[in-house]
Amino acid sequence: MSWLVILLILYVIWDVNYFIRCVFTVLGGKLFQRKRKVTESTSIYGLCTSQDVDIFIRHMNNARYLRELDFARFHFYALTGLYERIRQRRGGAVQGASSVRYRRTIPIFHPYKIQTKLVWWDDKAIYLEQQFVTLSDGFVRAVALSKQCITNCDVQELLNTYPEAAKRPEMPADLKLWLDAIELSSQKLRKDK
């Protein structure tokens, strides 16, 4: 009985569902889906449940969008083999910045998919675009840009190991504006020191 209480306390203190979902997302992708080129998009599916909604129990809350984006990124890393190659070089990947544009809510009990695509990279980071698309109407409900900082690893050298990424694509205009805004913010913070 005491083990059950301890497990229950650990379940409440640690977000066990998050870790379970991570494992299933990565393993499910590796076992049941074909590998993807690093330049191809990947998709995961979800359902807006009562655990995902806002206080009015009508639609997905903003924090859940970011959490779901994590799972989609892990899935992308697994299917493209990108994270394995980063780890082979003793590197790591951390979220450097993200920006989400909410277009329409995802109502409770509506299924959706998240499409993840590598859109650009520089020598220190990769940039992903992720879209929440409801299955009932194909509408893009939210769009996120994500800067994934790759540590202890040269990104260009890493991506050169993928023949399809031999040539870096042109930087999308929206990404350039977003990166300019991040740089302005960084300059302001540096001045405050």
Helix content: 40-55%
Order of helices and strands: HHEHHEEEEHH
Oligomer: single chain
Mind describing the biggest β-sheet?
Answer: 5 strands, antiparallel
Terminal Cα span: 54 Å
Shape: globular
Number of strands: 5
Total helices: the number is: 6
How large is the share of residues in beta strands?
25-35%
> Can you tell me the residue ranges where pLDDT is under 50 for at least 5 consecutive residues?
none
Query: How would you classify the helix and strand content by structural class?
Result: alpha+beta
Strands in their spatial order, largest beta sheet: 1-3-4-5-2
For the residues shown, what is the average pLDDT?
93
Radius of gyration based on Cα positions: 18 Å
